[in-house]
Specification:
2 copies of one chain form a homodimer. Chain A is of the alpha/beta class and 639 residues long. Helix content of chain A is 42%, strand content 15%. In chain A, the strands form 4 sheets. In chain A, strands 12-9-8-17-16-15-14-13 form an 8-stranded parallel sheet. In chain A, strands 1, 2, 3, 4, 5, 6 and 7 form a 7-stranded mixed sheet that branches. In chain A, helix 22 packs antiparallel against helix 23 and helix 23 runs parallel beside helix 25. The longest helix of chain A is centred in the C-terminal third of the chain and has 25 residues.
């Protein structure tokens, strides 16, 4: 995953043992040598077999790279590769470094446990991406994400062939980059949680080694409260400003009417742009609230003078100025939908959070664009929802080929209001892998069941890249029990799913100081075990007599749910982190009992349908996923 | 854990929330400020509550350090502290930096989940260590341990107040330090897996920040094959030499008869000793095989010339020379038992792997010593075994106070033949915490059941330091199933225990290239869940009628064991990593059935006692821990 463009299995298999070795031919390239070493180390973790530079071993995997190319990955570079695996060995050929990296990622996924040990089944693969821009945006501003979190996510990105790391670095709630020119930005705007310039360079190099471009985002002129804590003169209002603690859209915006604002940005870009070698530089530009501009006599007088009739025109003026500042440093501006305005040159890139329509509109007007609407990971939607969003569907369908070519790809977005460094991996993975497949694989790759089956495998394998999306679960549950045996909590946790931004924002007044230690934080966005039960329930519903194994699996789960509540209530007594879960646990028990009745061919208890509808609504900022398989059985019974 | 010297609970409790802040008074000290920041960050992980430098909050924990002291921690420094917690706040006072670090570690352990949220119960603690030398030895040579592994173990050491990191850096199987003077040491002796000098400095600084001394070990004159791969002239035999792949004691030894050997060591020490600021420098000196020395005409002629009557005398001569080389660089020699010889000055330190007798003998002769016999973690003995070993018991009992004062403490030893970076944390933790308590807490702290109860809590809390002793379990089981549902394997895994060096060495021909991906690697040294069942079984045996909860817990476990085999056998079909476990799973089912019969007041099946004896023997390099609770019930039935 992502599924290769073409893949032809053949007979035989290549054995993987401690004599495994990969060798490089073609132009010598230190980065590729390092990539091979990392690849071997990962294979070693994945199999538990020690592997290291074994000088005497013959190479089992021969890598031929025609021309490794320049220092850093670039938009539009050739990412193709071919991979041939036979019983005697494997050959990976690619025109450039990117293809080699992708081919190694594919090879790692092909390694399976056979009945003789680890092996790769013989295959011929020819592969290249459908879209050139396949990104993950990480918000390091709402909650700070330590370096280690960023690095392990870069490794996971590389494993599923994502090639753009869009790094959201400033917000109302935090300014996360060290500035030597304007030190009060990070000193006063970050609560001490920022990346030094050396760390930024380290991350950029780390990403580059993995074939990943880094596109920084400094969101202006809105989302800028943290800038103004140290430099209130940047703001439209006089200030003073404090670091934002609440979520939501702030009214604060840079003052577009003062020349000093542009001088500040000019100096800031002079300092910061060299840290990020990529051509593209993101200025955000989203959700600018007009209120302060409209209320400011100074801004209004200035706008009148410049014939700027409204806030949108003011922002376009601002963006035009910013675009020129970036252009003189060789950078191309990228921004969210709102930056789209005829005054801006068509070489800018528009990132659409509003939808495919807005993306298509940009393409029609000659702008290049990427899609992020439909790829918001922080909504905690199921993978299939994201998987079904195609940048070329909807309004993009009607574009001319020339216009369609302007749609460069897409980006999964991980906004960080409701996640911390502890939980963020589990909010990104494995669902981002489904988006990665959408952006890499042929458009016809749309089978959802196949996607889920492969995603479950990839989710396990991502463990070996270091992301903690599975590993964080047990410690968080352990924490919640305060030392008591965790099993009843785990049964419940496996049956629920976390909810995303909107329901959480509705449920409680969150700030950046709110603990993120509840079930809503520990629970996965999508329950793997409930998904398996849904498949089983669908089979039982379709063929009750022929699905004995599925019925048995359902019976085991339902019995466990039914029996769990007594143990859970005992565990939850006097525990403030578990109190809100008591009714959820009761509901789970009721679902278990109803499921058992349905399996036995009885009908569900009286009034259960209404109960089920109630249970489907959020409770304790959770969705009770366990309703789904029971509902399938109930609906089947009705026919 | 370790239990403080004195501890007086009182009424009330201190609430821990996002306004928590610690402040420092007394002499300003950047290291302590950093320690406070780390402490707050860990508290934040432990509770899931965001905490960061909140300038406005009043300090809930006031830290007063009389005199932070010099750059690095030192043997014998004052490590005492007092900690007062009341509902209004806490005060930590210490004469030096070490005491502050220990007090913070204690405070972190006192944070519990109460019915209103996180809190610390009011208490007054006065604490100081029983022994000044409380170490963990890590073998980074047999299997290489990456930097991240070392760092997270240093964090865990600090959490249980261990203060010496003894770093075993060279072996027959690998030379792990970059040498600029003799680059073939690491280039040809390490398979590319070594620490650069910058990395060494980084680790030493990291340890020092956490109050931990780093004592490097370069084992000479035996255990030196890896040195001779690049420099065969160092060897007694002409070579050539290859990096050792097998375990066990090698015959290769440095040539003591050539002056060039000492020149080499002199230059080597000149380069390496400045990397390690600690006063003590470990030269190993263990297990020197006399064979090559005895067979070498050159060595024999030289020995006769120098009146060295046997290999022991030769080694003493060698050590005396080495001791002088170290002394001229301000270092004090430390070595294993074998270095003990009247020709060596009494300022050297002897580390006893042979036993308390050998330690006491050294103390009688005026040498200082530390105990490691009884603390070999790689034997995978139960924590209670280590816990019962006291450096001052046995022969040390008869020492005069002056002699007894020469026993500085002890070190847990983690030899790495049968562990890799993936499993090493689970071989060290939580059992090393029991050794840490033995070395810190008053001699009267000997209640094993209390130790186990506290160790289980500490084991969970160590998660937040980053060690992977619990987190590595699930991915390893996932790997073994090759993608199939893991639960039947987990039931089995929870019921078995890994075996240590001797049984594994007897079971198969291991080399450094052998995969470490089997159940013997994933299984814990001690099963927490079986221990809980043992306690339950003991209660049921003592009071069958009054132990209904315990009987129910046993019934649940026995039922699960009995039912697990069918599912396990299905999972194991065609899986080479699970094949060896098929009979173990059958035995577990038999134990479950016998346990159920015993609970029902029936007798165990005919011949079961003999079966049980068979099951207690190692199988698949595992111990079937599940035998223990069943045996308790069976023996109770016999009375």
């Amino acid at each position: 995953m992502p599924l290769p463009a073409t893949m032809r299995p053949s007979a035989g298999k290549l054995t993987i043992d401690s004599s495994f070795k990969a060798s490089l031919s073609g132009t010598p390239d230190a980065r590729l040598e390092a990539a091979l070493a990392r690849f071997t180390a990962q294979l070693s973790r994945q199999t538990g077999i020690p592997m290291f530079a074994n000088k005497d071993a013959a190479a089992r995997l021969r890598v031929e790279c025609a021309s490794p190319g320049g220092e850093a990955p670039k938009l539009g570079e050739n990412e193709a590769y071919t991979l041939d695996v036979t019983a005697d060995g494997a050959t990976l050929k690619a025109p450039g470094r990117a293809g080699v990296l992708h081919g190694l990622a594919t090879f790692a996924q092909l390694v399976t446990l056979g009945d003789q040990g680890y092996e790769v089944a013989a295959v011929h693969i020819e592969d290249q991406p459908r879209f050139a821009w396949r990104g993950l945006m990480l918000d390091s501003a709402r909650h700070f994400m330590p370096l280690a979190v960023v690095k392990r996510n870069l490794d996971a990105m590389a494993a599923v062939k994502l090639n753009v790391f869009h790094w959201h670095l400033s917000e109302d709630q935090g300014f996360r980059v060290e500035s030597k020119r304007y030190p009060k930005l990070h000193e006063q705007g970050s609560d001490g949680m920022f990346y030094t310039q050396a760390e930024i360079r380290d991350i950029v190099a780390y990403a580059s080694d993995r074939g990943i471009r880094v596109v920084p985002e400094f969101d202006i002129p809105g989302h800028t409260t943290a800038w103004m804590v140290g430099y209130p003169e940047l703001g439209t209002n006089p200030g003073p400003y404090e670091i934002g603690r609440k979520w939501g859209v702030y009214e604060n915006a840079l003052d577009p009417s003062r020349e000093e604002t542009y001088t500040f940005l000019d100096n800031f870009f002079e300092e910061i742009t060299p840290l990020f070698p990529d051509l593209y530089f993101h200025i955000g530009g989203d959700e600018v609230v007009a209120k302060q501009w409209n209320a400011s006599a100074r801004v209004q007088a200035w706008a009148k003078e410049h014939n700027l009739k409204d806030a949108h025109a003011i922002q376009a003026y601002f963006n035009t100025r910013v675009q020129k500042l970036l252009q003189k440093r060789g950078k191309v501006l990228i921004g969210w939908d709102e930056v789209l305005h005829p005054d801006l040159p068509t070489d800018i890139v528009v990132q659409s959070w509003r939808g495919q329509k807005s993306l298509a509109e940009a393409a029609t007007k000659g702008y290049r664009g990427i899609l992020s609407w439909g790829y918001y990971l922080d909504h905690l939607s199921p993978a299939k929802f994201h998987y079904r969003v195609d940048p070329m569907s909807g309004d993009a369908d009607r574009l001319t080929p020339e216009q369609a070519a302007r749609i460069l790809g897409g980006e999964a977005c991980m906004w960080a209001e409701y996640t911390t460094s502890e939980t963020v991996d589990s909010r990104i993975w494995p669902r981002a892998a489904a988006i990665a497949e959408r952006l890499w694989s042929p458009a016809a790759t749309v089978d959802v069941e196949s996607m889920y089956a492969r995603m479950a495998v990839v989710s396990r394998e991502l463990e070996w890249t270091g992301v903690q999306h599975r590993a964080n679960y047990a410690p968080m549950l352990d924490r919640m029990t305060g030392g008591a045996p965790v099993e009843p909590l785990r049964v419940l946790a496996d049956a629920v799913e976390g909810l995303g931004l909107s329901p959480r924002a509705r449920a409680a007044k969150y700030t950046s100081l709110t603990p993120m230690n509840r079930m809503a934080d520990a629970a996965r966005p999508e329950s793997e075990s409930v998904y398996a039960l849904e498949l089983a329930a669908a089979k039982v519903a379709a063929d009750p007599k022929g699905s004995t194994a599925e019925a048995a699996a359902l019976r085991t789960a339902f019995t466990r749910w039914a029996a769990n509540d007594a143990r859970f209530q005992e565990l939850a007594a006097g525990n403030p982190l578990l109190a809100e879960l008591k009714p959820v646990s009761k509901d789970l028990a009721a679902l278990g009992n109803a499921g058992l009745a349905l399996l036995d061919g009885k009908s569900a208890p009286d009034g259960f349908a209404a109960e089920l509808t109630r249970m489907e609504r959020p409770n304790a900022e959770l969705s009770l996923a366990a309703t789904r398989p029971v509902k399938i059985l109930m609906n089947a019974g009705r026919k």
